[in-house]
Each structure stands twice: as C-alpha cells, then as structure tokens.
Amino acid sequence: MTVTTATRETSQQAARTDVAAAPMDLRHDWSRDEIKALFELPLMDLLFRAQTVHRQYFDPNRIQMSTLLSIKTGACPEDCKYCPQSGHYNTGLKKEKLLEVEKVVTQAKAALDSGASRFCMGAAWKNPSEKDFPYVLEMVRQVRGLGLETCMTLGALTPEQAKELAEAGLDYYNHNLDTSPEYYGEIISTRTYQGRLDTLSHVREAGMKVCSGGIVGMGETAADRVGLLQQLANMPMHPDSVPINNLVKVKGTPLADVADLDPFDFVRTIAVARILMPASYVRLSAGRQEMNEQTQALCFMAGANSIFYGEKLLTTPLPEESQDLALFRKLGLQPEGVCKDRAERAQQALYYSAS
Ligand code: SAM
Ligand code: DTB
Ligand code: SF4
Is 141 in the active site? Predict the structure, then answer.
C-alpha cells in the first residue's frame, strides 16, 4: 500500500497527542526571515513558545535514550573538517575494520540492559561497499531481534541499498545535513549537499524513518543555523529525529581551535528546531560531555527529548551513565519506555539507584 506523506504525518501526530490538546498543523514552508525572527526572540519568550509546542506533542518529562556503537572506525575517505575519523587528518585515532556481527550483538545486549531503547550503529564510510553490505544487513536483523529499535549511519545509499536495509528491518537511517547549503563547501569538499538530500529521499522512499540534523559551533554564522533548520523543516516530511550536535573539538581536525558557540545560542537552536518540527524527536546530541547540567536542563526546557547515553558517542566520550541518571532524577525526567520488559525493568532499576 502506498502511504502518502499526509497520512503518515497524521498518524505520527495522532500517536503523540495523548498528553496534550489538539496539535497544530505541521508546516513545510518556513521562510528564512520567519526562522530568524524566532532566533531573535527574547530568550524567555522563545523558551516559553518552544515548551508550549513541545507539550502539545510530547510528555515533557520523558526522554528517549539511544546508544551508539562505531561498527567501523577511522580512515574515512571524506574530508569533513569536524570529524576525528577522516583519513585526511591525523587525530591519533585507532582505526578498526568492520566489527563482526557477534560483537555488535553483544554490545546491543549490553545497551538494552542499561536502558537504551534504540541502538545506533555508525560507520566511517563515504558509502557502504558491496562486500560489507551483507554483514550490515545481518547486524540489523540480529539487533532488531533483541527488541531494540535500530538506527544506522553508513554514508550515502543507493535506492537499492535503502530498500534492502528497510527489508532487513532497519527502523531509522541517520544522515545529517550538518550545516546550511551555503556553508557546506567550507566544511566538506568530497561530497555535495544535493547528494545528502538524495540519500534522504531514498531512505524515505524505502519506508524507513529519517534521522537528520546538524552540527553547530563550527564557526558558522547565525544565518547558517537558520539555513540548516530551514532545510530540515521544509523537507516534504520532517525528519522523525533531529540530532543537534555541538561540535566536539578534536585535536588534529581543522576545527580543533574554532571559537566556542555561546551556550545560549545552542539552546536557541534546539528551541527553534522544536518549534519548526513540533512532532519530531529533537536530540541533544554530541557535546553534552562539555556542557554543564544547567545548559542541558535548558535544552530539555527548549524541547530536546532525546539523548545519546552510554560510554561514548562514536569515538568521543559521553557523560558517565550515573551522572546522566542523577541529572534525570534532579530534573524529574524519566527515560522513555522500551519495547522489552527486561529492558524497562533495567531502566527503572538504574534510574532509582542513581545517586
Ligand atoms: N560517515 C557517515 C556520514 O558522515 O554520514 C556516518 C558517520 S558520521 C561520524 C555521523 C555524524 O556524526 C556526522 O554527520 C556529524 O553530524 C557527526 N559528527 C562527526 N564528528 C563530529 C564532531 N566532532 N562533533 C559533533 N558531531 C560530529
Ligand atoms: C549524530 O548526529 N551524532 C552522532 C550520530 N549522529 C552518529 C555522532 C556524533 C559523533 C561525535 C564525534 C565522535 O564521537 O566521533
Ligand atoms: Fe567520514 Fe562521516 Fe566522519 Fe565525514 S563525518 S569523515 S563521512 S565518518
């Protein structure tokens, strides 16, 4: 059966309105001026607006938790200036070839036990090769078999590869636009913005959920942050998940010494993403390790309702799990439920034992 954009979004909304009044229509025609005006609101007005929208679609005290695993590390042929895994820069990272399926499944079981509801697997590839692809499909089948939601980020996909991943049971595909179309060429020269948009279309057409966002704090202007969010919000369907990464500055990458983004500008980016894409999960993604608890709390206030949780992101550390759970307790936040009873119990036990 062909599911139209409108039908899918209506059901997306219906599933998320149990805590609130009628949701507003989702818009896909935001102008840059309108988005700029949101960014420029007094912070309290912006936060109030974002939190009000957030409550129309989500339980404001529930946070979705994902765990990340790097299934192939380093030596990437792309030259993304932010990335410790690019083969173009010397970051001292230990390269690793594609992990065996068994090792991935062991890690997924551990993630389930520690309370994650989604297991994300990332590979430092421009695109998956024919040789590696069957192993990747097997990882999806086995991880999904544990009852976890699955997500992968493997670089560019052909329409056929997207279809095969969907058939293997992949729930989400992560493919970030990373910045505005205007700033993209300053950051990456080995691929195009249009190529990223094409892969996102293949993912949607194959029936998978889209996870797409970007990185801020890369020396971009406020207008570039507007441009990134406009691209995401004006897609025919909003990404189901929108990761907002704060650049993790890694020694050896060209962006290692870029100036810090003011934390309030990070919070504003989250708030505007929430207002533009009210029914999407907005993830407070990379950069939490460098952020204090108060800034993270403001991000949740601004409508972030998803985090990466566990030992590390792909190659850089995350806050200790106990620290995260302690913050959740202080803020009265709860991890969003997972499909397995075992995992739910583990989450609850961890949550209540955190000091
Ligand atoms: N190679 C694939 C690709 O680029 O699509 C998948 C893996 S790549 C590491 C996934 C995402 O990680 C990138 O799109 C980028 O948004 C994010 N990322 C990489 N390095 C980062 C850094 N230093 N700080 C914040 N985010 C980063
Ligand atoms: C996303 O938007 N952020 C994650 C995930 N998708 C794959 C990756 C962040 C990587 C941060 C740098 C590192 O740990 O290597
Ligand atoms: Fe490679 Fe992805 Fe890193 Fe770019 S972001 S260098 S494509 S791993």
Answer: no
pTM of the complete model: 0.88
Predicted confidence (pLDDT) per residue in 240-289, tens digit? 999 999 999 999 999 999 999 999 999 999 999 999 999 999 999 899 88
Q: Catalytic residue, from 16, 118, 204, 211: name it.
A: 211
Q: Which fold has domain 5-21+28-354?
A: TIM Barrel (3.20.20)
Instruction: Please indicate whether residue 153, judged by its CB atom, sits closer than 6 Å to ligand 1.
Output: yes
- Please choose from 94, 215, 313, 316 the residue to mutate so as to test ligand 2's pocket, defined by most ligand atoms within 8 A of CB: 313
Residue 322 has pLDDT above 90, yes or no: no
339 is catalytic: no
Q: Is 50 exceeded by the pLDDT of residue 15?
A: no
Catalytic residue among 83, 196, 204, 225: 83
Catalytic choice (151, 225, 288, 299): 151
Q: What is the 3-state secondary structure (H, E, C) of the chain?
A: CCCCHHHHHHHHHHHCCCCCCCCCCCCCCCCHHHHHHHHCCCHHHHHHHHHHHHHHHCCCCEEEEEEEEEEEECCECCCCCCCCCECCCCCCCCCECCCCHHHHHHHHHHHHHCCCCEEEEEECCCCCCCCCHHHHHHHHHHHHHCCCEEEEECCCCCHHHHHHHHHHCCCEEECCCECCHHHHHHHCCCCCHHHHHHHHHHHHHCCCEEECCEEECCCCCHHHHHHHHHHHHCCCCCCCEEEEEECCCCCCCCCCCCCCCCHHHHHHHHHHHHHHCCCCEEEECCCHHHCCHHHHHHHHHCCCCEEECCCECCCCECCCHHHHHHHHHHHCCEECCCCCHHHHHHHHHHHHHCC
Q: Is 155 in the pocket of ligand 3 (CB under 6 A)?
A: yes
Instruction: Determine the Cα–Cα distance for residues 267 and 46; give it in Å rounded to an integer.
Output: 10
The bound ligand whose nearest atom lies closest to the alpha carbon of 246 is 1
Q: Is 211 a catalytic residue?
A: yes
Q: Has 299 been annotated as catalytic?
A: no
